[in-house]
């Protein structure tokens, strides 16, 4: 009888997402998360120095502990999609109406830019393969200097720079248009147009719905996880890892500079800045529970999806940065092409050895890894927009799905938004990390609200059966870690750009007019019945019941104070 009920539930309902995958499908969709290490492994190396491998290990450990809270609250809403922010919003709406959509909005701000940032790095890899910039030590540079010796002037470094500039393919410097606004630049250059093509390919795959996406990502995931594991393991046995590259365990004196500093305020600020940006990658496997309403058996699949995705991420987020640092050392990690991300794939290929063919193969697989992370991001962020619309947080037009069960209007919104971000990310490394830091401000805000929604749901909906119930001490640790993450943001966002924190807060505040339009203009001040039904989670609770008293308000106030104090105390 249970089997028949599950089969009936799996029959697609017109206009809604389809129950077509198990936890294994969600695992493969989330398998793009380990590739996020490629986004900031160079940047974190440039700010943490010899501490980089510990930053990654500590960050994924925090993410794994936090995931148990997310697994519990996801089980309360078997008919929702869109991830932990949707489940957390239901806890906050009883207390502060505008905080609930803030959770959803900030989660989307965090996930959506993966499309543009990933495409910008992948485009750089493609251009490096098709139109490489010669290295200063290459034979071509030496030959050019010898051929033009009679006309060259200046130091040896000046001559080398002139040779590299002369031998650089013209497409690497071409741009149709570029400009600078405030703290960022944007450019419609070759990398931008290559990135657009990659983004459209991902969109076409996503258009087939979650089952088609999971099937495609299974094969790409296998082609990516295996080489990333190779990069993480082989250097341990081929002599590429040098153990003296892990000491001394001292912060840098300044970002991207080889001089060691000390454990003073500046050193701690750089470390907290590294923890801040690492969280954007390591916590992200929570996207595995973004597909609850598309699971065939949500009660069993939800916990398995996030748990096994977490184990995969622990392995790769610990191994890859460890061998990366052991092989490159401080000087190698501070190479400009590594810090800006464009040379990370080549550096990892050299770690494994095997000659030019192996290097080219690994670079191609790293491009696939980025494509995988982009697919993961589009699948998750578009569903966040879709469910946010269904629940009354975001404009109505986003709640449309096609015949395959794909939220196409949300996907088009993602695509359009990311075309703008792509032009910024492709301009230069400063603009790239500005987008990343602003995006992560949204992620930390979402993280704070949702970790605290764990105990809020325990108070308001404690009577509701949970397919998975985390130990109470895990829920408590998660709440404490929400404040630790706020410290990372308050202290660390400035490491990446002086305006990043304030730009991130402004971006988060944009939900106020968006939600006001939906709630008061489109819905006349009333929530859709779908949201109210799920808010009651099977009980008789009313929207006005507030069993937690003043605790939610105290928590929000404490979060704001923690942010401001951390930002004031920690300085570069």
Defining traits:
two-stranded antiparallel sheet, single chain
Write the layout of secondary structure elements.
Blueprint: H1 2-10, H2 23-30, H3 37-48, H4 52-75, H5 84-92, H6 99-111, H7 114-130, H8 139-147, H9 156-167, E1 175-181, E2 184-189, H10 190-206, H11 210-237, H12 265-282, H13 298-333, H14 336-339, H15 344-352, H16 355-390, H17 408-425, H18 429-460, H19 472-496, H20 500-509, H21 511-522, H22 529-536, H23 551-569
Antiparallel strand pairs: 1-2
Overall pLDDT:
82
Name the poorly predicted regions. Answer: 1-18, 537-542
What's the alpha carbon Rg, rounded to whole Å? 24 Å
For the record, what CATH class applies? Mainly Alpha
As for the CATH topology, it is: Amino acid/polyamine transporter I
Protein name: Amino acid/polyamine/organocation transporter (APC superfamily)
GO molecular function, one term: transmembrane transporter activity
InterPro entries: AA/rel_permease1, APC_superfamily
Organism: Methylovirgula ligni
């Amino acid at each position: 009888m249970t089997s028949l009920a599950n089969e009936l539930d799996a029959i697609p309902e017109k206009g809604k997402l389809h129950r077509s995958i198990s936890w294994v499908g969600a695992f493969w969709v989330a398998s793009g998360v380990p590739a996020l290490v490629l986004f900031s492994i160079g940047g974190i190396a440039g700010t943490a120095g010899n501490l980089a491998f510990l930053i990654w290990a500590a960050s994924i450990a925090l993410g794994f502990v936090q995931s148990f809270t997310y697994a519990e609250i996801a089980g309360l809403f078997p008919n929702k999609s869109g991830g932990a922010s949707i489940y957390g919003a239901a806890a906050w709406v009883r207390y502060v109406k505008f905080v609930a959509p803030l959770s959803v909005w900030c989660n989307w701000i965090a996930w959506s830019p993966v499309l543009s940032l990933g495409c910008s790095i992948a485009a750089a890899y493609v251009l490096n393969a098709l139109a490489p910039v010669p290295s200063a030590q290459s034979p071509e540079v030496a030959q050019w200097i010898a051929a033009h010796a009679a006309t060259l002037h200046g130091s040896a470094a000046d001559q080398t720079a002139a040779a590299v500039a002369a031998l650089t393919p013209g497409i690497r410097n071409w741009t149709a248009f570029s400009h600078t606004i405030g703290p960022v630049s944007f450019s419609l250059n070759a990398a931008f147009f290559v990135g657009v093509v990659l983004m459209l390919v991902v969109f076409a795959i996503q258009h087939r719905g979650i089952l088609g996406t999971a099937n495609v990502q299974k094969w790409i995931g296998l082609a990516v996880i295996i080489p990333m594991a190779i990069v993480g393991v082989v250097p341990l046995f081929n002599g590429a890892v040098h153990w003296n590259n892990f000491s001394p365990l001292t912060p840098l004196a300044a970002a991207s500079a080889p001089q060691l500093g000390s454990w003073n305020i500046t050193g701690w600020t750089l470390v907290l800045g590294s923890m801040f940006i690492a969280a954007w990658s390591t916590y992200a496997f929570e996207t595995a529970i973004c597909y609850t309403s598309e699971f065939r058996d949500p009660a069993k699949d939800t916990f398995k999806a996030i748990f096994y995705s977490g184990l995969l991420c622990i392995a790769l987020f610990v191994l890859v940065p460890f061998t990366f640092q052991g092989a490159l050392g401080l000087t190698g990690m501070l190479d400009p092409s590594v810090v800006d991300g464009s040379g990370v794939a080549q550096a990892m290929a050299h770690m494994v050895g095997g000659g030019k063919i192996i290097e080219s193969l690994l670079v191609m697989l790293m491009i696939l890894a980025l494509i995988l992370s982009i697919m993961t991001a589009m699948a998750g962020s578009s569903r966040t927009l879709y469910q946010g619309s269904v629940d009354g947080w975001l404009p109505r037009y986003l709640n449309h799905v096609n015949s395959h069960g794909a939220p196409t209007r949300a996907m088009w919104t993602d695509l359009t938004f990311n075309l703008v971000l792509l032009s910024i990310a492709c301009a230069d490394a400063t603009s790239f990390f500005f987008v990343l830091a602003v995006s992560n401000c949204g992620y930390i805000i979402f993280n704070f609200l949702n970790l605290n929604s764990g105990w809020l749901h325990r108070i308001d909906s404690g009577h509701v059966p949970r397919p998975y119930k985390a130990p109470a001490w895990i829920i408590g640790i998660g709440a404490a870690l929400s404040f630790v993450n706020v410290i990372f943001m308050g202290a660390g966002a400035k490491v990446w750009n002086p305006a990043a924190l304030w730009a991130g807060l402004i971006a988060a505040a944009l939900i106020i007019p968006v939600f006001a339009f939906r709630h008061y203009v489109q819905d006349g001040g009333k929530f859709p019945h779908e949201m109210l039904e799920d808010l009651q989670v099977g009980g008789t609770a009313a929207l006005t019941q507030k069993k937690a008293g003043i605790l939610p308000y105290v928590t929000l106030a404490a979060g704001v104070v923690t942010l401001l104090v951390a930002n004031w105390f920690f300085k570069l």
